[in-house]
Write a structure and sequence with these properties.
Helix content is 42%, strand content 15%. By secondary structure, the chain is α/β, with parallel strands linked by helices. It has a six-stranded parallel sheet, sandwiched between helices. A six-stranded parallel sheet has the order 11-10-9-12-13-14. Strand 1, helix 1 and strand 2 form a beta-alpha-beta unit. The protein is globular. It starts with a strand and ends with a strand. It binds uridine-5'-diphosphate-xylopyranose. Uridine-5'-diphosphate-xylopyranose binds next to helix 9.
Length: 425
């Protein structure tokens, strides 16, 4: 099938590349000409394991094209994916500028039937609005079908998540486009959830909000366990054995970050309040997440008394491992609070490059701890699980080790006279 993917961010690039690898002829379009030039030179703007190689392979096969002429893409392709960014404003309302521009372009270039598939995360009701807007532009509803087909891919695992999803959610206004979707994903084996346009949008928010709730629940449990001297990982493994709960997303620590959970939970709160519903759980999830960092800060401040002028090393800047994405990273938020208290920050991350004059970033994780008063583990990169702790202790001036991701064996580091700080460890 001939497919136009509009927007080459995480979702667009992954979706377009996987669809071309499945055999479709894909035109990835973006109004950022520089980005398109770079992609045509083989430079992929995001770090995602396996993506560059797959892009390369399908460009060579002549099945993956990058261009900035949106009208050409729309005219050429009967299938159009909307994968543009939908940032959320502070109040939770959604900035639909990019979507609006796409709808305008479709309105100007639609001369034959189009199946328009929204993969961007959009507030409930947006796809109905897209349908209405195209009608108001005078386009006959028989000339297009809108489909809401949210993605559930995780950064750092995006290709696998797209090729082996645990479900395919399809929101439609009529049955007709369902066959088209099934042809598109013919080589992907997963159960279909067929629902309304708004139903599919809501599934996306409910999924992310529920996963965020699991994390905030475990972080709240960690606070309670900390007060009772109970090991939180015991709670997690016991809960995880219960099939009704499941073992995933029970890992307590500094809280959730990234381009999805914080934004989507805020957006769901906003969507609920639009209907005069006070989403108490969703609000509590955010409150716990927003205050989790303070717990670690308090413990560090209690130990170091005054952070002013103290040299603090931070390992991990990305919001999670296997990505270079620092959006809403808990690590950066923690660093900001430490800087406000006058601390000096020396950081290391396996892949994140950061140019912030207030933060000294090192290529070598051991260099980053030289003469420091404390070391904080802020992102759960696997390389922080096999460390030469004698070398770290020798290099540091102090002996404080803050485990913000509960990945360090505290008994093992105790052998090196570290003062271990964790929550419920
Ligand atoms: C998430 C969803 O998982 C994905 O389905 C959706 O499509 C997009 O949003 P992603 O943002 O890539 O994916 O990150 P994820 O792996 O879900 O982690 C989110 C945050 O939660 C990270 O900051 C991670 O460190 C944190 N986390 C995750 C925990 O604190 N504890 C856990 O047990 C799991």
């Amino acid at each position: 099938m001939k497919i136009c993917v509009i927007g080459t961010g995480y979702v667009g690039l992954t979706t377009g590349t996987v669809l071309s690898d499945l055999g479709h002829d894909v035109y990835c379009v973006d109004n950022d000409k520089t980005k398109i030039e770079k992609l045509n030179e083989g430079k992929v703007p995001i770090y995602e394991p396996g993506l560059s190689a797959l892009i390369d392979r399908n460009k060579k096969r002549g099945r993956l094209h990058f261009l900035s002429d949106i009208h050409y893409g729309i005219k050429e392709c009967p299938i159009i994916y909307i994968t543009v960014g939908t940032p959320t404003n502070e109040d939770g309302s959604q900035n639909l500028t990019a979507i609006n521009d796409v709808i305008d372009s479709i309105g100007q270039s639609i001369h034959s039937h189009k199946t328009i598939i929204t993969k961007s995360t959009v507030i409930p009701g947006t796809n109905e609005w897209i349908h209405q807007t195209l009608m108001e532009k005078g386009i006959d509803s028989n000339m297009f079908d809108i489909v809401s087909n949210p993605e559930f891919l995780r950064e750092g695992n995006a290709l696998a998540d797209m090729l082996n999803p645990d479900k395919i959610v399809v929101g439609v206004k009529r049955q007709k486009p369902i066959e088209t979707i099934k042809k598109l994903y013919a080589k992907i084996h997963a159960p279909y959830i067929i629902t309304s346009l708004t139903g599919a949008e809501m599934i996306k928010y409910a999924s992310n909000a529920f996963l965020a709730t699991k994390i905030s629940f475990m972080n709240e449990m960690a606070r309670i366990c900390d007060a009772y001297d109970v090991e939180i990982s015991h709670i997690a493994s016991a809960l995880g054995r219960d099939k009704r709960i499941g073992p995933y997303f029970l890992h307590a620590g500094l809280g959730y970050g990234g381009s999805c959970f914080p934004k989507d939970v805020r957006a769901l709160e906003y969507a609920a309040k639009q209907k005069d519903i006070i989403p108490e759980i969703v609000m509590a999830v955010q409150n716990v997440n927003d205050s989790q960092i303070n717990l670690y800060l308090e413990k560090l401040t209690n130990k170091l008394t005054n952070l002013n002028g103290k040299k603090i090393s931070v390992w991990g800047l990305a919001f999670k491992p296997e990505t270079d994405d620092t959006r809403e990273s808990r690590s950066l938020l923690l660093i900001k609070k430490l800087l406000e208290k006058g601390a000096e920050i020396h950081a290391f991350d396996p892949i994140v490059q950061l140019s912030d004059p207030a933060i000294t970033v090192y290529e070598d994780m051991y260099e980053a701890v030289k003469e420091s008063d404390a070391l904080i583990i802020a992102t759960e990169w696997s390389q922080f699980k096999s460390v030469d702790w004698k070398k770290v202790k020798d290099f540091m001036k102090g002996n404080i080790l803050v485990d913000g991701r509960n990945i360090i064996d505290r008994n093992h580091v105790a052998g090196y006279q570290f003062h271990y700080i964790g929550v419920a460890r």
